[in-house]
Write a structure and sequence with these properties.
This protein has about 575 residues and is of the alpha/beta class. It has 19 helices and 22 strands. The strands form five sheets. The chain has an eight-stranded mixed sheet with strand order 13-22-21-14-15-20-16-19, sandwiched between helices. Strands 3-2-1-4-5 form a five-stranded mixed sheet, sandwiched between helices. Helix 6 crosses helix 13, helix 9 packs across helix 11 and helix 15 crosses helix 18. The protein is globular.
Length: about 575
């Protein structure tokens, strides 16, 4: 059975499921080169079909994320809409009332469904094959089937800005794999929407730069953070009739319309203090929610999905709760991974067996591979700018450069899915040399100075660098941990303020080529880890092909690149 899962909104993506197994997945932005591409993922679907060697007629169903989807918006419109949605001007209030209480919402939803069908038809997809799966069910299905647990109860929590009129759910899965939703929160009380709005207030891009506020939060003073926390804490209360759900307090606007309300209360507060207070609020709210859900269900193995769990610092707070026995977070858990959840949901419904035999999630190198002829073609076209060679042992060759403080990119094998580069489309550096941070920022990434980098570390050495008493799996850069006393060995790959680490723990079986690079570096330095950041220019998608890698290298200060078996360096001019 072949099912293609589709997310046709912000950060559009598609995946191919064959008999319950993910065979490929790709975000549309990797092909169009438009960051957070927001339309039907036509090119991603075409790539999936080509990769599988089939056409549209061979697909049994197209599993769609959500019953209805917001209109397509670029970043400028998203910023404008966030600001104006919270306006108290009469015309905005009338539009708001019409949307919330009149027949306009039903009409809008029907029109958007028709638009989605038209986009699918334009991509060659028969609308009769479209199967719509409720948004938070997509998140929940992904979280459960991606988790390592089968044959035992699992607690599944989902939370994001909003989807199909809600922003959070609590679900239980029994030993037979049957999922039941036991609580949900209306979209009007969305903490993620508050985070998005504050991101806009602080001059950042909503639905994109929330991670910058999270990165700034540790710099704010504890006293200041508590004061700002109290502003946010007054927004929600726990519902006495539904103890696993929160709701807005009296007088607090729908969070979709809270721009002016928040602006008035945060005016003249320091940037870092706002970030610290809001982050503290999100961490405490989510932690209390998890505690309540575990107490109500007695289930201590927890699976999470939804955009708010891209907040790795909140995930650390959840992971450290004594009530949590084990934790799984679906990697890159925004809506770009809802195609997986939608596809698994449809597969489960159409499969005769009650409990589909779906293996837990492993490596997520689901994107395009690079072929030798593609590399050679790209190198030939760019030979005026680069020199290249094929070392006998490219891992050892790269380790020589990394050991002495050179920055090296790596493009090899299939592209990893999602927001985190996991070694195959990465920029690497010696984590014991803090000077590489400025080098990477100034020459390549143009990142904000306060933002931390992450670390890839050999599984055999992980306990040398991170405090992980529960032995939580961390292969996807979706969790942070406190660093051990050996923090100086990985200083450049930690948060400069609080010394937390966002690791990719690398198992050799998952990515032997990348493991070999880290291992060769360890042999030269004694350090079993590398600084790892995504290979892209600021504001652009992660590179996908050899030609794109060379183009980014040409347009930046990057000097060295592993490109499959080839070693590439810029020519000195």
């Amino acid at each position: 059975m072949r099912i293609i899962g589709i997310h046709d909104g912000h950060n559009a993506a598609a995946c191919l499921l064959e008999d319950g197994v993910i065979r490929g997945a790709l975000q549309e932005e990797r092909l169009t080169r438009i960051k957070n591409h927001d339309t039907f993922p036509k090119r991603a679907v075409e790539w999936l079909l080509a990769e599988a060697g089939c056409d549209l007629s061979a697909i049994d169903a197209f599993a769609m994320n959500g019953f209805h989807m917001p209109v397509h918006r670029d970043r400028e419109r998203l910023i404008r809409d966030t600001r104006w949605a919270g306006s108290n001007r009469p015309v905005r209030l009338l539009k708001r009332l019409a949307r919330e209480h009149g027949p306009g919402l039903a009409i809008w939803k029907a029109r958007r469904k028709a638009d989605r069908e038209a986009e699918a038809r334009a991509a060659g997809v028969d609308p009769a094959k479209l199967v719509y799966i409720e948004h938070h069910r997509c998140h929940a299905e992904a979280a459960y089937w991606g988790s390592p647990w089968r044959g035992e109860p699992v607690l599944v929590l989902t939370a994001d800005g909003a989807g199909d009129d809600i922003c959070a759910t609590v679900n239980t899965v029994d030993a037979g794999g049957t999922m039941q939703r036991i609580a949900q929160v209306d979209e009007s009380s969305s903490p993620a929407m508050v985070y998005l709005t504050v991101t806009t207030l602080l001059g950042m891009v909503p639905n994109e730069h929330e991670y910058k506020l999270m990165g700034m939060a540790p710099y704010g003073s504890a006293k200041g953070a508590e004061a700002v926390y109290r502003i946010f804490e007054k927004m929600f209360e726990w519902d006495p009739e539904r103890p696993l759900a929160w709701r807005r307090r009296s007088g607090v606007p729908n969070t979709y319309y809270c721009y002016e309300w928040l602006r008035d209360r945060l005016d003249l507060k320091r940037f870092d203090i706002i970030c610290a207070g809001m982050q503290l609020w999100v961490e405490r709210l989510l932690a209390e929610w998890v505690r309540r859900a575990i107490k109500a269900t007695g289930i201590r193995k927890v699976a999470l999905s939804g955009g708010i769990f891209m907040n790795v610092k909140a995930n650390q707070v959840i992971a450290e709760l004594p009530e949590v026995e084990d934790l799984f977070i679906f990697p890159s858990c925004g809506d770009e991974t809802n195609p997986m959840g939608a596809a698994w949901a449809v597969y489960g419904e159409r499969k005769q067996e009650a409990d589909p035999a779906i293996a837990p999630l492993g490596p997520i190198y689901w994107g395009p591979d690079i072929e030798e002829k593609e590399i050679e073609s790209a190198l030939k076209a760019a030979e005026g700018d680069f020199r290249f060679e094929r070392p006998e042992n490219i891992s050892a060759h790269a380790a020589e450069f990394l050991a002495r403080g050179e920055v090296v990119a790596r493009v090899d094998g299939r592209a990893e899915f999602g927001a985190r580069a996991l070694g195959n489309r990465s920029i690497l550096a010696n984590p014991s040399m803090p000077r590489v941070i400025k080098q990477i920022n100034d020459a390549i990434k143009s990142r904000d100075f306060w933002m931390p980098f992450a670390c890839s570390m050999l599984a055999e050495r992980a306990n040398d660098y991170i405090v992980n008493p529960k032995g939580l799996a961390a292969p996807y850069m979706i969790l942070t941990f406190n660093a051990t006393e050996r923090v100086d060995e990985i200083a450049a790959g930690t948060h400069p303020s609080d010394r937390t680490v966002r690791p990719q723990i690398v198992e050799r079986a998952w990515n032997p080529g990348y493991w070999d690079v880290i291992r060769a570096f360890e042999e030269k330095t004694g350090i079993g880890a590398l600084l790892n950041t995504s290979f892209n220019l600021h504001g652009h998608p992660i590179v996908n092909s050899p030609a794109e890698a060379l183009d980014d290298m040409r347009r930046s200060g990057l000097q060295s690149l592993i490109l499959g078996p080839w070693w590439v360096e810029k020519k000195v001019k």
